[in-house]
Amino acid sequence: MDWSDRHCRYFWRLLSKNAVLYTEMVTTGALQFGDRERFLRFDPAEQPVALQLGGSDAQALAECAEWAEQWGYNEVNLNCGCPSDRVQSGRIGACLMAEPELVRDCMGAMTERVKIPVTVKHRIGIDDMDDYDGLMNFVDTVAQSGCTTFIVHARKAWLQGLSPKENRDVPPLDYELVARIKRERPDLEIIINGGIKTLEQCNTLLQDVDGVMLGREIYANPILLAGVDQALYGDTAPAPSRLQVMQAFMPYMQAELERGTRLNQMTRHILGLYQGLPGARAFRRIISENAHKKGADLTVVQQALAAVEPDANALPRPL
Fold first, then answer.
1. What is the DSSP string of 204-255?
2. CA atoms of 175 and 182, how far apart (whole Å)
3. Residue 286: which of 265, 303, 308, 262 has the closest Cα?
4. Which residue, of 204, 232, 260, is where some domain finishes?
5. Catalytic residue among 82, 106, 147, 202, which?
6. Whole-angstrom distance, CA of residue 142 vs CA of residue 190
7. Is 82 noted as a catalytic residue in this protein?
8. CB-based burial of residue 233 (10 Å sphere; 0-12 exposed, 13-18 middle, 19+ buried)?
9. Same-domain pairing of 154 and 286
10. Would you list which residues are annotated within the binding site?
């Protein structure tokens, strides 16, 4: 939430043509009673892109899934993995793992309403529910809805006692448990998530499951995404360089600036692009100190690039 917005996804798409991109979690209430266009709008260049929903009312979720299909999303995903107190109070996220029949009914209502795939993302357990039988009861019950794709974060979630941040690091990872689901339910598509940091790790995990989902590592170190097409999809074209990605992102940022988007709404997503390289700290500092200012334009980005790219002058100049 608050990270993979449309600007972030456009930037990511410049790094990989094939990876499926997911929106931040959007609650059903935000779509029903809020600024629907703000949450559903995306650039066609982002495709393939999936809308991730948060909610527990079957009819509300079905209505939102229908909007997702109408807007052109490739997939609708129900989040049953977020451990935030904010979403628990709304009966959203990981707390739903305690109510598999409710999740089944929600998934069924969405599946009946749309033709695009409806998928679910969940943990391997919550609180004291950490037995394999409990996990499989959740999976098998939800599968009764017709859902065949399960994205499994290979950590349990402690809804009491750990913060959302701690829930992303403290509970131990159990990749073998996710692999076991695939072995025992070979008819289901099982996608693994949690703590994955390298493409080599992805290839190793893909020997046991159908797919891998990366979140925080891609955000912190986005250049990792530039190797996905070659390493995982068999693309023979060379991966884009950081400078090529920025050359492609600059026209998008300029067009958005002309629509009234603030520069920092876009540049906050590129801060990790040069992670680990000489000048990376200056790149981040220049953007962080200037992109939020009133009237900030692409000159800020040019100045930041000059700190890390000897060929930064090859970029198109701001209009």
1. HHTTTSSEEE--HHHHHSGGGGGGHHHHHS---SPPPPHHHHHHHHHHHHHH
2. 11
3. 303
4. 232
5. 82
6. 13
7. yes
8. exposed
9. no
10. 52, 121, 153, 193-195, 215-216
CATH at residue 273: 1.20.120
| 162 Cα distance to chain centroid | 22
Q: Residue 157 corresponds to which tokens in the numbers above?
A: 């979630």
Tokens of 311: 């060929």
Distances (CA, A) of 275 to 187, 200, 241: 40, 19, 14
Q: What is the pLDDT along the chain (319 residues), one digit of tens a residue?
A: 789 999 999 999 999 999 999 999 999 999 999 999 999 999 999 999 999 999 999 999 999 999 999 999 999 999 999 887 655 556 899 999 999 999 999 999 999 999 999 999 999 999 877 689 999 999 999 999 999 999 999 999 887 766 666 656 667 899 999 999 999 999 999 999 999 999 999 999 999 999 999 999 999 999 999 999 999 999 999 999 999 999 999 999 999 999 999 999 999 999 999 999 999 999 999 999 999 999 999 999 999 999 998 876 555 554 4
Run of H or E including 32: helix 28-33
CB 190 within 8 A of CB 143: no
Look at residue 179 and tell me if it is in a domain: yes
**319 falls within a domain:** no
Domain region containing 262: 242-314
User: What's the domain count of the chain?
Assistant: 2
